């Protein structure tokens, strides 16, 4: 399959800080690719280098077969960029905003209405951008990045600070965009977002890629126990700990949780004791992989 992005040995330093330290990966044509990592991991710097906004200190890089640095005008019509913080022209409506962005690429003004419909803002066409909610502004930002019909789309934490409903609505928009065959590169702090949207993810920390692959493959590769929870008091902790297949058990006053690598044996034993009230079974997730690789300490 053709490679949309090829990165080899990418490095970027700021004084003694190695913001990007030997990063290597490729993004395939039509792929939804995620870059995950804690604050300061190097995600945004990596993205800005690929977009041609920053010059790398070392490494080889091509985007759609071209070098993005020095700033390559041949790439600009072929890529779309949605930054962490979006800035719009003041006092313009959503439609006027899109028409203005489109005019920079020679896009007909009528394209604005089609883009508003794509991101679910057709009913906000005549609303000034400062009157839009946070989720609506994020969707407009993505529409601006798509108005010239780019082959490759970059999204830097597009759902940051959105409420759960707005996040889920934006996911639907991104899935629809992905089905059109575009390549999408996403950075995000939300593991559920990456697990739901991305074909593959790269987990970064301290400027390096620690793991890369499809989310489900990374989760399966983590030797983590399943967790079985039932309502507190359904079963005594002492009894739970001696169930066949149980590794550990604890009760926080709300739920009794049992860790196990043999959930079927534990559930069968609990069923025999009529202790399945409110049962929930949770396997490992991408968040478990992320925490295993990057640690649990607070990042400023």
UniProtKB/TrEMBL annotation:
Which segments of the protein form a coiled coil according to its record?
none
- Gene Ontology biological process terms, A to Z: response to antibiotic
Q: Where in the cell is it found?
A: Cell membrane
* Bilayer topology annotation: Peripheral membrane protein
Molecular function in Gene Ontology: ATP binding; ATP hydrolysis activity
Residues of the ABC transporter domain: 5-231
Choose one Gene Ontology CC annotation of this protein and give it: plasma membrane
Entries under SUPFAM superfamilies matching the protein:
P-loop containing nucleoside triphosphate hydrolases (SSF52540)
- CDD domains, sorted: ABC_DR_subfamily_A
Determine the domain of life of the protein's source.
Answer: Bacteria
Keyword Transport applies: yes
Q: Which Gene3D superfamilies match?
A: P-loop containing nucleotide triphosphate hydrolases
This protein's UniProt keywords? Antibiotic resistance, ATP-binding, Cell membrane, Membrane, Nucleotide-binding, Translocase, Transport
Instruction: Provide the family line.
Output: Belongs to the ABC transporter superfamily.
State the name under which the record lists this protein: ABC transporter ATP-binding protein
């Amino acid at each position: 399959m053709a490679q949309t992005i090829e990165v080899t040995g990418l490095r970027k330093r700021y004084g003694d800080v190695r913001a990007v330290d030997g990063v290597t990966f490729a993004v395939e044509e039509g792929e939804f690719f995620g870059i995950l990592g804690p604050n300061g991991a190097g995600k945004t710097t990596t993205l800005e280098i690929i977009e041609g906004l920053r010059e790398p200190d070392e490494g080889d890089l091509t985007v759609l077969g071209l070098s993005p640095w020095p700033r390559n005008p041949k790439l600009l019509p072929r890529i779309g960029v949605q930054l962490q913080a979006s800035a719009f022209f003041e006092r313009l409506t959503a439609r006027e905003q899109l028409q203005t962005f489109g005019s920079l690429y020679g896009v007909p003004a009528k394209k604005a209405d089609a883009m508003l419909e794509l991101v679910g803002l057709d009913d906000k066409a005549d609303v000034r951008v400062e009157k839009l909610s946070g989720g609506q502004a994020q969707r407009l930002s993505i529409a601006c990045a798509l108005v010239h019909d780019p082959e490759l789309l970059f999204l830097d934490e597009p759902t940051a600070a959105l409420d759960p409903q707005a996040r889920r609505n934006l996911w639907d928009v991104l899935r629809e965009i992905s089905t059109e065959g575009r390549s999408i590169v996403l950075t995000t702090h939300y593991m559920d977002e990456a697990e739901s949207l991305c074909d593959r993810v790269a987990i970064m920390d301290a400027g390096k890629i620690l793991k890369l692959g499809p989310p489900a493959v990374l989760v399966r590769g983590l030797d983590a126990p399943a967790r079985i929870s039932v309502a507190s008091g359904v079963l005594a902790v002492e009894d739970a700990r001696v169930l066949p297949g149980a590794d550990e058990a604890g009760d926080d006053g709300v739920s009794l949780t049992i860790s196990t690598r043999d959930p079927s044996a534990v559930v069968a034993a609990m069923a025999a004791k009529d202790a399945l009230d409110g049962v929930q079974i949770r396997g490992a997730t991408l968040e478990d992989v992320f925490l295993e690789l990057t640690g649990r300490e607070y990042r400023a």
